[in-house]
Amino acid sequence: MVVGEISQERDLVIIGGGPGGYSAAIRAAQLGIQVTLIEQGNLGGVCLNKGCIPSKIWTYAAKKRSEIQHMEELGIESSGEGFHVGKLLDYQTKVTKQLRMGVEKLCSENQVEVIKGKATFTRSDRIGVENGHQFDTYTFKQAIIATGSFAELQANIPRESNRILLSDEIFKLAKIPDHLIVYGNDYIAFEIASTYREFGSKVTLLLENERDFPYDSAINKELTRQFKKKKIQIIKNAQLNSVKEMNDSIITITYEKDDDTEHLLEGTHLFTPGIRKPNVQSLGINRLGVKQNEEGFITVNKNLQTTIPSIYAIGDVVKGPMLAVKAIKQGKVTAELIAGGKPEVDLTFLPAVAHTIPPIASVGLTEEEAVEHDLDIRISQFPFGSNGYAMISGKKDGFIKVISDKSNDIILGIHMIGEGAIELSASFAQLLEMAAKEEDVKFPLYAHPSMNEGLLEAVEGLIGESIHMVPKRKDERVSHVFT
């Protein structure tokens, strides 16, 4: 190793070139700050290269495959028999490469200095970067840690099998599994189950808890119905005991249920989202006195500063939802704070989304949460079977559910399963952020025909004004007080 003798000075050093890191770098550069971005691998991080983008390529392909029957109804003929995994993998490579090149160009055009290498703090104002046999040191005025997270298998799942897959591995498979067992209770697990079933895998979904899914009860019920309709087997309250690879083609799982009886399940592959951990082990922050919680997440204040005020942390390395949207927002806000602004991050109305078939979006209080808070609420649920554009597009499954406070008409929660849920989620979040009332949703004009009209009709339905819903009985039109 050749050690550089001179420490180079930098204003802002950002460690990690994922969505949070490069967003922070570009925003800081826009604000006139000299920025150095250090990335050990490829720009775009896990999200662009292994996670968010590859996974959504697969879910998008599955969605298109699910539309073949409807396309034939429209007169567009397709055999629908062939599916070439190799072509999908080639497309995945092409798209991720193009997006990565786009990030590289944006950094270059914004005059962000990009350094490839592994970064380690050597002092509270100094960092070393190792790249092969070269080691350079940099002093900095401020630094942002944006190194993301990594997935680790649960303790009772062996690590040596190539049939046991984490999220950054399953999208590299050159062959669709015959029987995929999905072990998990988050959006990634649901997307994988939905996607691979559409591609022809037999899918069994193992849920640890008796509660089926983590959404509003109406969404949970509909998602269960959709999975059963697609012949996805759901096993609830399954406590995993062991996983073994019996031979080159079989994975055997044993699990317990309520009766304490051990059950056996065989499949060809096992997918689990695993346990995500902050990627901070090699940063050397322990010797600096940067505080971490017992799980290893970096402790930050409301301004995302660590216990060393000149060092910030964003994204998966800090406690909270491990989502790119969180990292991007925190990255921009941190850059603006460093530039002297006074922005803030509020994750209260962070949309929970899943690219299942059909997709899910949920913002705000569920019905159950509203009841727990003893709120006097109104509830309305508009089915897409009554929406004109849903009929046209063949996307009749699902609904929009709206919950409002009866005392002041403020919208408390919006939950949707159906076509367009992901795109509409930003509108849901915006309405809750502005403490919108029912009238705020009813007043604007909605394009016709469109899925957007479902939101209007759901809100109108709160007081029995929806045009395309069967009216409730008179004794049901007055909302009940939940206690």
UniProtKB/TrEMBL annotation:
<dbReference type="InterPro" id="IPR016156">
    <property type="entry name" value="FAD/NAD-linked_Rdtase_dimer_sf"/>
</dbReference>
<dbReference type="InterPro" id="IPR006258">
    <property type="entry name" value="Lipoamide_DH"/>
</dbReference>
<feature type="binding site">
    <location>
        <position position="56"/>
    </location>
    <ligand>
        <name>FAD</name>
    </ligand>
</feature>
<keyword id="KW-0285">Flavoprotein</keyword>
<keyword id="KW-0520">NAD</keyword>
<feature type="active site" description="Proton acceptor">
    <location>
        <position position="448"/>
    </location>
</feature>
<feature type="binding site">
    <location>
        <begin position="184"/>
        <end position="191"/>
    </location>
    <ligand>
        <name>NAD(+)</name>
    </ligand>
</feature>
<feature type="binding site">
    <location>
        <position position="274"/>
    </location>
    <ligand>
        <name>NAD(+)</name>
    </ligand>
</feature>
<keyword id="KW-0274">FAD</keyword>
<dbReference type="GO" id="GO:0050660">
    <property type="term" value="F:flavin adenine dinucleotide binding"/>
</dbReference>
<protein>
    <recommendedName>
        <fullName>Dihydrolipoyl dehydrogenase</fullName>
        <ecNumber>1.8.1.4</ecNumber>
    </recommendedName>
</protein>
<dbReference type="InterPro" id="IPR050151">
    <property type="entry name" value="Class-I_Pyr_Nuc-Dis_Oxidored"/>
</dbReference>
<keyword id="KW-1015">Disulfide bond</keyword>
<feature type="domain" description="FAD/NAD(P)-binding">
    <location>
        <begin position="11"/>
        <end position="331"/>
    </location>
</feature>
<dbReference type="InterPro" id="IPR036188">
    <property type="entry name" value="FAD/NAD-bd_sf"/>
</dbReference>
<feature type="disulfide bond" description="Redox-active">
    <location>
        <begin position="47"/>
        <end position="52"/>
    </location>
</feature>
<keyword id="KW-0560">Oxidoreductase</keyword>
<keyword id="KW-0676">Redox-active center</keyword>
<dbReference type="InterPro" id="IPR023753">
    <property type="entry name" value="FAD/NAD-binding_dom"/>
</dbReference>
<feature type="domain" description="Pyridine nucleotide-disulphide oxidoreductase dimerisation">
    <location>
        <begin position="351"/>
        <end position="458"/>
    </location>
</feature>
<keyword id="KW-0963">Cytoplasm</keyword>
<dbReference type="InterPro" id="IPR001100">
    <property type="entry name" value="Pyr_nuc-diS_OxRdtase"/>
</dbReference>
<dbReference type="GO" id="GO:0004148">
    <property type="term" value="F:dihydrolipoyl dehydrogenase (NADH) activity"/>
</dbReference>
<feature type="binding site">
    <location>
        <position position="316"/>
    </location>
    <ligand>
        <name>FAD</name>
    </ligand>
</feature>
<dbReference type="InterPro" id="IPR012999">
    <property type="entry name" value="Pyr_OxRdtase_I_AS"/>
</dbReference>
<comment type="similarity">
    <text>Belongs to the class-I pyridine nucleotide-disulfide oxidoreductase family.</text>
</comment>
<dbReference type="InterPro" id="IPR004099">
    <property type="entry name" value="Pyr_nucl-diS_OxRdtase_dimer"/>
</dbReference>
<dbReference type="GO" id="GO:0005737">
    <property type="term" value="C:cytoplasm"/>
</dbReference>
<dbReference type="GO" id="GO:0006103">
    <property type="term" value="P:2-oxoglutarate metabolic process"/>
</dbReference>
<feature type="binding site">
    <location>
        <begin position="147"/>
        <end position="149"/>
    </location>
    <ligand>
        <name>FAD</name>
    </ligand>
</feature>
<dbReference type="Pfam" id="PF07992">
    <property type="entry name" value="Pyr_redox_2"/>
</dbReference>
<dbReference type="Pfam" id="PF02852">
    <property type="entry name" value="Pyr_redox_dim"/>
</dbReference>
<keyword id="KW-0547">Nucleotide-binding</keyword>
